[in-house]
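Rather than argue in generalities, we have chosen a single entry, letters for residues, whole numbers for local backbone shapes, without further comment.
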Amino acid sequence: MAAVTIGIPFYNNEETLKYAIQSVINQTYVDWHLYLINDGSTDRSLEIARQFESSKIKIIDDGENKGLISRLNQLIDISESEYFVRMDADDIMVPERIERQISLLEARPEIDLAGASAYIINNNNSVTGIRIASIRGGGPSGILKNGLFIHPTVTGRTRWFKKYKYKEGFYRAEDLELWCRSSETSNFAIIKEPLLFYRDSSLMNLAKYKESSKTVRKIIKLYANSSKQKVILLFKENFKISVYTILDLLRFTKVANRRRNSSIDQLQAEKALAVLRSSIN
């Protein structure tokens, strides 16, 4: 049995799936098993996944479309390894990602879950920025105020994932709900260096953002630590929706997306691009 199980659910990711899989194959840490789970794709994703099938890479396909939350829990259920690694089918791992995170977890047995920062890439695999992850304030109130992990960067102890799992009913913000629900009985850590290339389109999808915001408001109502915090956070969330709606009407969606990421200079971008190429070639 491998020490690490990597789980990648995919749905209509024919343009990016091969890069995600190749970046797993190119990891410096080699004691892993990869599960690729098809969520009812209608494009060539399953065909592409089957090209990589091996003793270390298993394909799961039941022909159904159950959604991300169900598939994540399915991956957790079948994992028998000590560690479980999250990843999305449109992202790319830095070659040292798993090695760095497993080293941290082995050196610090009190840590349940480790995340990392991420480079931002567009649909052409160009590096456009960086998103810095950090832990700023503990418990649900701190997470609601400041955020926590970049979801596909997390690696943790499988027993932790099996204990908490993802909850249905929190579409597009299932990770935020999980962090809030588990935070008071868990220990989290962040590796500041970017260990993932996170694909973030330059164009904001307002419909998807509204779906996310609806779930975030639900989470705020559940986990805010006081009526005052609840009112403040709900006001901010409603205000953001109003601003993004206006930006969408004015065709300024790139502005909305750039606010979430930090820029990098040309030299940093070139170095990051060299790392990306080593991840997928």
